[in-house]
Design goal:
461 residues; alpha/beta; Aspartate Aminotransferase, domain 1; 3 domains; 4-stranded antiparallel sheet; 11 strands; 11% strand; aromatic-L-amino-acid decarboxylase activity; Glutamate/tyrosine decarboxylase-like PLP-dependent enzyme; PyrdxlP-dep_Trfase_major; pyridoxal phosphate
Length: 461
Amino acid sequence: MWVDSGDYEQALERAWEHTREWLRALPRRPVRPSITADDVAAVFGGPLPASGLDAASVIDFLAEHAEPGLMAMQSGRFFGWVIGGTVPAGMAADWMVSAWDQNSGLRFATPATAGIEEAAGQWLLELLGLPVGSDVGFATGASMANFTALAAARWRQLAAVGWDVNAGGLQGAPKLRVLVGAERHESLDMALRFLGFGAPEVVAADHQGRIDPAALRTALESGSGPAIVCLQAGNLHSGAFDPFREAISAAKDHGAWVHVDGAFGLWAAAVPGLRHLVEGVGLADSWGTDAHKTLNVPYDAGIVVVRDVAAVRSAIGMHAEYLMQDDHGPGDPMEKVPELSRRARGVPVWAALRSLGGDGVRELVAGRAECAAELARRLAEVPGVEVLNDVVFTQLSLAFGSDERTRAVTDFIMADGRVWMSGSRWQGRDILRVSVTNWSTDSADLDIAVQAIKDALAATA
């Protein structure tokens, strides 16, 4: 049955009105949700009704009853985890992606979205200083970006010793070593599990979480066989960056593939004043990052970059008679990430990059680092606050004396709702972790954050 565009209009108009209300309320609403997931499930659940509801009414119900359970992650006062907001062009482009409804796996079938993603990929290589000609894929997030890159590494390193992992699998394959820093993100271990590696070899890190290049070299020398080394651009707690030039030199001396998990920190490469943090990162073989973090586009925006095009396409791609595939040039999108069916998730990335331009991206990234440094300076002057890390990028780790008091301050902050900061444990201490990632965070938001922490200290004295 043909559906007229008018059938969509009322529902879309209601969605637009509710979205406007949500965005207008962000500056004044508490960051935390006011109800629990159980409360929401009670309203939305129960037996499936026999009769349907018109689309506009569904949208009204959704907006009214979901709103109390929403976290204001787009607020400039959200400092939890490493989560950006959404720049306007990225959000609007994401809506268009849903309306276009393109299954963006094949260049032949969806040339518009494939071409837009290729353009975005070239801009990313330029911004981040990564090798021209590398494959760029758009994955669901940094976890699957890492997975994709490590699948390419597995294929290449086993092929180098005469083993075809696509044909033979892992049973009976030569032992493949994977070395990681002691403070890598746990999602890297998850990707390694998915790929059948099991637990990696752990290399010592310093007090800021940076891998020790000398310890890495020693570890590589203590064993033999094909190897993969995983490095990090942006420690979850300190924001610190591994010493890439020295660590990559050690890895390459032993024929290892080097992958860089740069979920949020790889964007430092776009800023001249921060580029020293990633010196030598372009010498690696693959990189993973996430545009929903530092670039502030909607979710479903992981980015994987692989220098060895043949490796990633051999590890990830597939061929079938019914698919009209591109056998030359940039390759099909489905050869660069582990999905055949997917939305055109690179289009919002292109829109954000085009709306910001190179200068805007640099200002966005540098501004988040400057806000973090300002917040650290101001909090260091507050009696009872300890800033535990060297604030080099966008992360702060705070303590307030004993672990017990730090937990109490954290509980106060999360219950208070003016800002959102998350608790964690680092270097043997309970901490309050602050991530300055949202594009809209400004000095007024920092004022509120400082006052919330002061109030928490007073309440827990």
